[in-house]
What does this fold into?
Amino acid sequence: MSKFNEVSSDDLVLPKPNEENGKEIDAKDFQSEDIDVVKGLQASYALTTAQIGQIEIELHLLHKRLDQVKEIREELFKKYAKLQEEESSLVKSLNEKYGDGVLDLDSGKFIPTE
It folds into this structure.
C-alpha cells in the first residue's frame, strides 16, 4: 500500500501526522522536482489507461466488422452454390435441346460433339 493518499490528480497529500511514542511526527515539504516526477507518473498512467481503453474500443469495432464480413461471405457462398445449381440446370436443358457440344458465345454458334 502506498504511503501517499491520492486526493486528486493534482494533489498529493501525506497521511495526517500521528503520534509515535507520545510525540507528534512533523510533516515535511516535498521538493517541487519530486512533486513534478509524481505528477508526471500520474499523467503517464492516465494516458496509458486511456490508450488501453481506445485499443479495446478499436478491437471491439474490428470484431464487429469482422462478424459483418463473415455474414456477407456466407451469403455470397450461398449465392455461389445457387449459381452452380442454375448452371447445372441450364446445361442439362441445353443438352436436351441441342445435344452434346460446345457453344461459342462470341459467334453464337453451337458445335455438336461427334
Q: What stands out?
A: The CA atoms of residues 42 and 66 lie 36 Å apart. The mean pLDDT is 85. Residues 5-112 form one domain.
